[in-house]
Structure formats: structure tokens, C-alpha cells
Predict the structure.
Amino acid sequence: MKLNSFTQRLSTVGRWMAATVLCVSAMTFVWQGAFFSNTAAMASPAVNLIAAADAGDTVQEKASKDAGRTKNFIRDTEEKVKETAKTNAAKVDRASDDGSFVERKAKKDAATIEKRAEEDSARTQKAVDNTKNAVERTVDSIKGVFSK
């Protein structure tokens, strides 16, 4: 759909306003963070180091737990996709008794869908593992910086 000149100008103004509001809100959050920081906590860095170590362990545990949940969700989704493909192929099989082209095509498509579901699931699980490992490495390196 082609916009007329008025709606095109209105759209441009709307984008500029959205960008301006986003930038102003970002500056506001940064500004408030600078003025409301707790400077009393900086007097004793040892307390902060203990808190940082506990927070690091908490982050690593949370990352592992979330990665496990995500991988389970991915496996469940893979199984549901496979089940749906098999169900659809079976419906086509019941609808046509003579082994028609449509039936063969449905079975071939079901096999392709199952194969791709397995590949996508494996790729996504690997990405989840890589993300979890990156988080754990980052937390370990931050802990190393604070422990020196």
C-alpha cells in the first residue's frame, strides 16, 4: 500500500518522536542511576566482593537451571512437531486408499518435517548450551577480577 504525502510525513514524524522518547528515557535512567547510587557501600569493598561472589554463584545456578528448562521445552516442541506430522500423514493415508500421489507426498513431507525438527532441535539446544557456557565464563572472569 502506497502512502500519500500526508501519511508519509506523519509516519516520519512519529518515528522521530518515538526515537526521541526512547533517547530521553534512556538518559533519564542513566542520570537517576548516577545520583541515587549508594556511596556508603563503597567504603568497604570486602562486603561487595562477598556479595559479588554470591551473586555470581546465583547467576551460574540460574543459567544452568534455565538452560535445562529451555532444552526440555525444545525437546517437547520437537516431539509435538513430529507427532503432528505423523498425524497429518495418517489422515491423508486414511482419506486415500489406493496409494495415490498425495498419500506418498504426505508421507515424504512428514519424514522431511521430522528430520528438520530433529536438526532444528539439536541446533537450538547447542545454541542454548553455548549461551549458558558464555554466561558462566563471563561470571567466572568477573569473579576472577574481583578476587585479585
Q: What stands out?
A: The two ends are 61 Å apart (CA to CA). Residues 55 and 139 are 9 Å apart (CA to CA). Residues 45-49 have pLDDT under 50 and may be disordered.
